[in-house]
Amino acid sequence: MAETTIPKHDVIIIGAGPAALSAAIYTTREDIDTLLFERGVPGGLAAITDWVDNYPGFPKGLAGLELAGNLQAQAERFGAVIEFGEVLKIHDEGELKRLETTSGDYHARAVLIATGSDYKKIGVPGEVDYYARGVHYCATCDGAFYRDKRLVVVGGGNSAIQEAMFLTRFASHIDLLVRSTIKASDVLQKELQKHVDAGKITVHLGTTTDEIVGEDGAVRRVRGTQAGKPVEFETDGVFVFVGLKPNSEFLDGSGIELDHIHLVSSDENLQTNMAGVFVAGDIRSGATMQIASAAGEGATAALKIREYLEGMPHPVQN
Amino acid sequence: MVKNITIFTTTTCAYCPMVKKYLGAKGFTYDEVNLDEHPERQQEALALSGALTVPVTVVTKQDDSREVVVGYNLAKLAPAVA
Question: Could you tell me which chain A residue has the CA closest to the CA of B12?
Fold first, then answer.
């Protein structure tokens, strides 16, 4: 029986967000054969973020989409290849790791997990029923459908405040429902106050979101609770930014250690408990969930991967 | 066989360039309707897709049948233009 040849690479990076692309810039620039797997859009959550104000080197800030495009272009300039597909499992076969993917099996001498996170769902009635028909998780994708409409934004972190402010360019008014208090940075809170003063955003602290109610196929209102009493907000749509969910499901059963919130544990070299498998960015346990941090971790991981590969006996032979 | 393709996009949508890049790499030309520039066509996009989102890709075949792909979804887009 003919032996099936599994494609081999020095490094396979799972993901193509800022951590992954930064790592790829470093590995490919040193001629380390690198393949990236991306199941969504290069740039990850950064690509769908309206505006990035705190990434070093851009004094005026820049659109998340532009930053993502720049990172991708820089990695591709040095020869990084992005395969659009999903890694389903990682198997430890000693010097090689075998990755089951939607495009078949691949071998890698080293692997970088940089799968990041996705926005969490609230888990209330109506949320799934009206997904993409009134309930949204991407302001830059779907905000344009709410010109001169009322909106509810759920969340009180950086993303919720940033995206609520972005949505004011379309919506007539936004009710911001915050379960406890606003956790966003001081800078964003000051910006938010300008929109509050202008009457574009009303902040409702201590307000839970309990149900999204629709009629005739469209979202009409949100029911919640404030100070123990039921409250209702008339709205045409709901944008949800209530935190992040790690993209680590594919690691279940792999033997790679996760922490209590399903982020990937690592040592001081960003290496997981599986030798040759590294982690960087938002998916790493202890990460600060910042684009600049992710980029830095990607670079660090690439250098540690190079050290690891230099200590291995055999270069890849395809 | 594909007769023509229309993509509904917005300026800030990250997934829209992905669809355009994919179709461009496959050698397809397409018409783009940017809903930021043509908000009057939002209802048309909604009627076609049933969703308040972009990208919406409308693939019209030679027999004038249509396939509508919502989002950057290669599992649906690839067979739609095959």
Answer: A140
